[in-house]
Amino acid sequence: MVIITLQRNKCIGCNYCAELAPQKFVMSKKDGKSVLLHSVEKKGFFTLKEPDHSLLEEIDNAAKACPVRIISVKEV
C-alpha cells in the first residue's frame, strides 16, 4: 500500500506533480493548484491510499520535484 498526501492550500501551481505523475495529479482549472485524484480531504490534507506499487517511483519523483514540499509518500 502506498499512502500519498497533498497539502493543497500551500500549492504554488508549478505543475511538476502533474507532469511527473499524471495518473494521480492534475492541475485545477479553477485555481491552478494541484489536485490529487480520488483523494479524501481532512483538515486541509488530501490523502489517497493506493494499492498499486508500480506507481511508487513516479509519485516519489513528483514529491521530490515539488519546490514547496507539500507531497508526502509512504509505503506501508
Helix and strand topology:
Layout: E1 2-6, H1 16-20, E2 25-27, E3 34-36, E4 40-42, E5 45-50, H2 56-65, E6 71-75
Antiparallel strand pairs: 1-5, 1-6, 2-3, 4-5
Number of strands: 6
Q: What is the terminal-to-terminal distance?
A: 5 Å
> What letter string, H or E per element, gives the SSE order?
EHEEEEHE
Report low-confidence residues grouped into runs of 5 or more.
Answer: none
Structural class: alpha+beta
The neighbouring-strand order within the major sheet is: 4-5-1-6
User: What does the overall shape look like?
Assistant: globular
Structural overview:
The protein has a 4-stranded antiparallel sheet, with helices on one face. The mean pLDDT is 96. The termini are close together. The chain has 2 helices and 6 strands. The chain has a single domain, classed as Alpha-Beta Plaits (2-Layer Sandwich), CATH 3.30.70.20. The chain is globular. With 76 residues, the chain is an alpha+beta fold.
